Fold this protein.
Amino acid sequence: MSTTSDVDAIFDLATSAPTSSTPPQDTNTSENGTDNDADGSSADSGGALYPKVLRTHVASELADGENPDGTLTVAEFAGYLTVEAIKAGAGVEGIVDKQNIYTATKAKRHPLPVVLVFADDADQSDLSNAKVYLPVKEATEAWQNRPARGESSATTSKKTQDDLLTDAAKRSITLASIQKRLDRANEQKAKAVKLLEKSYGWLAQYYKATPEQFIEVTDSDTNATRPETQEEANKRLLNAAITERAAKLEEEEAAKAESEKTDIPDNK
């Protein structure tokens, strides 16, 4: 069973490298070789490695493998911003690169806020020992309110006209490739929606809620609480059944993949 969706594809565009809580190597330089902070101004990167630390944790304070409450990794946050921007109609221009997020967490001016997690025995005076997470609410607000980065112009660039033209051509190719992937993702979504609607139609006869199965819901128009309608209750039961079966199938696929990975034939 495939769980690929258009949202997965968009996430892939923003976070093409494997997701990791460990920050990527800092490459906070412009193409012209000038150190820049997040708003495009030249500045010394002295001071704290992450200028805006909201809070810190040690690993033992968190459940194994979980993010601190309300946070995302750098790659996850880039994907989150990308999805929100595209949902708002930004199109391909809304894609956010995770390296831009990481660079913004270290900017001397207008840095993104971070939450740091140290190993229990790590030296917390050295922030490079920490894994970096973005608090979604605060970081989203900071990202949206950051000053626009200055644009480099041909008159100030150290590159030749031919080099600049080559760069522009490569970026045009990249943009076209991304747009093609987005278009393909939207086509896949449309097909998946149609197929799922067929499944709903075929299964509807088997999921009829009885009065005692109805629950209270909040009306979106009046914000008042009311009992479910028969149609709402039926659809809720069907959705729950589909979700439960999907989770079971995914578990089976994961177990099968793990078994195939570890079951290596003995060639001796």
